[in-house]
Specification:
Shape: globular
CATH superfamily: NAD(P)-binding Rossmann-like Domain
Largest sheet: 6 strands, parallel
Radius of gyration: 18 Å
Structural class: alpha/beta
Distance between the termini: 24 Å
Helix content: 25-40%
CATH class: Alpha Beta
Strand order of the largest sheet: 2-1-3-4-5-10
CATH architecture: 3-Layer(aba) Sandwich
Bound molecules: NADP nicotinamide-adenine-dinucleotide phosphate
CATH topology: Rossmann fold
Amino acid sequence: MTGAVLVTGAAGRLAAFVAEAFADRPVVPLGRTDLDITDPAAVGRVVAELRPGVIVNCASYNNVDGAEDEPAVALRINATGVRSLARAAQQCGATLVHYSTDFVFSGEASVPYDEGDEPAPRSAYAASKLLGEWYALDAPRAYVLRVESLFGCGPSWTGPRGTLDAMVAGLRAGRELQVFTDRMVSPSYMPDVARATRHLVDRQSPAGLYHCVNSGAASWKQVAEEAASVLGVVPRLLERTTAEVVLRAQRPTYCALSNRKLAMAGCEMPSWRDALRRWIEGASATSV
Ligand SMILES: NC(=O)c1ccc[n+]([C@@H]2O[C@H](COP(=O)([O-])OP(=O)(O)OC[C@H]3O[C@@H](n4cnc5c(N)ncnc54)[C@H](OP(=O)(O)O)[C@@H]3O)[C@@H](O)[C@H]2O)c1
């Protein structure tokens, strides 16, 4: 791999781990104030100046409920912003890495989704992310990694937390937690996602769409019970089904993804239980 690694949306959670995974290369992390990906001229200019070997797009509009009220904003960031990056990547010959979501599926499956399963987005957020996938894959060399339920923020993180990070904080504090008994997930440990990203880029694996989550599937209740067991605390869980909790945007109930294609590319993802334990016990090498 030659050239710098440009990380867009660099103030976000996953971006920090991506930057760390590529730390032995020149990394240029640009947050929204440095590069707004919805400004095509700025994207073209910055990429032409930097001529990166790899562009890793971590910029995203992730407010799932908010997107119902401002779908055009979500589309500008999650779709046309990605199109600008794909065009810029094409012009300078860079590899484009982009992240998408399990929410592109309807959630009606009963076994983990693979990359060949038909997406059926049920929300403005999900539709914007699916369109972003398509634009990203227009780049001559692109990896689109679908991740879900990202977790693993370090103690210094002060931004918004994902479900699992908030869950572990709640368990540590002895708070009662509302957990879904029927939403099935494959949580994604951010250092593992960053390592998989590096693997695909370094090995020049076949370009395309990859599911990139920790292996296995569990309900949020099972995840909470496992986290409590690792923490050595007795959880106070308020069990709910997804039907009992009405949210602004529709979300898939069954969200588990299969990593088979990633494994075929030589990148085995550890189980979510292993990742959870590494994170909680602080055994991970990462310091982010
Ligand atoms: N978090 C999850 O559980 C989850 C689940 C499925 C998929 N994903 C995907 O994984 C990727 C990383 O997620 P994450 O949780 O790390 O996201 P995040 O923490 O929300 O970070 C996203 C970053 O993008 C920035 N951004 C927003 N609009 C921008 C723009 N126009 N130009 C440049 N930067 C912009 C945000 O800046 P501001 O703070 O200023 O808005 C923020 O720093 C995303 O593609 C996301 O969709 C995440």
